[in-house]
Write a structure and sequence with these properties.
- This protein is α+β, with helices and mostly antiparallel strands.
- It has one domain: Aminopeptidase, CATH 3.40.630.30.
- A hairpin with a 2-residue loop joins β2 and β3.
- The chain is globular.
Length: about 140
């Protein structure tokens, strides 16, 4: 049975592997070079700065979520676990901890947008660039 727990120092490699598989499966607007450039940012800046929750099953991480207050800054599921409830369970955990949530989703990731809309989010704004100023528009969502 899956459980949710806080990040452990030993999780970093497993979470980066999940991030990489998930991004390759969903972020088709990113080039391989974009992904390679983002990996050290996720490892060295993003994960250490967030409150990270890990969904594990059979003792191994399957998905993770990073929070900054009530803002979901990261939600990545291993593609082998897509459409099995991992994202929904992590969001429910975040809502139980933080109340109504906010997040940004890449406009060019329609599956993620559809998922968040099913989870009760609504679009409240748009940015023409991502958080690093790159030309990857973001949609701002809130519950």
């Amino acid at each position: 049975m899956p459980t949710i727990r806080a990040l452990r120092a030993a999780d970093t490699d497993a979470l980066l592997a999940i991030w990489l598989r998930s991004v390759r499966a969903t972020h088709h607007f990113l080039s391989p070079g974009d992904i390679d450039a983002l990996l050290p940012v996720v490892r060295d800046q993003v994960l250490p700065a967030l409150e990270v929750w890990v969904l594990e099953d059979d003792g191994a991480p399957q998905a993770f979520m990073g929070l900054d207050g009530a803002t979901v800054e990261a939600l990545f599921v291993d593609p082998a676990r897509f459409r099995r409830g991992a994202g929904r369970v992590l969001l429910a955990h975040a809502r139980a901890l933080k109340g109504p949530l906010r997040l940004d989703v890449n406009e060019a990731n329609p599956d993620a947008l559809a998922f968040y809309l099913r989870m009760g989010f609504r679009v409240i704004g748009r940015a023409p660039v991502d958080g690093q100023g790159r030309p990857f528009p973001l949609l701002h969502l809130a519950q």
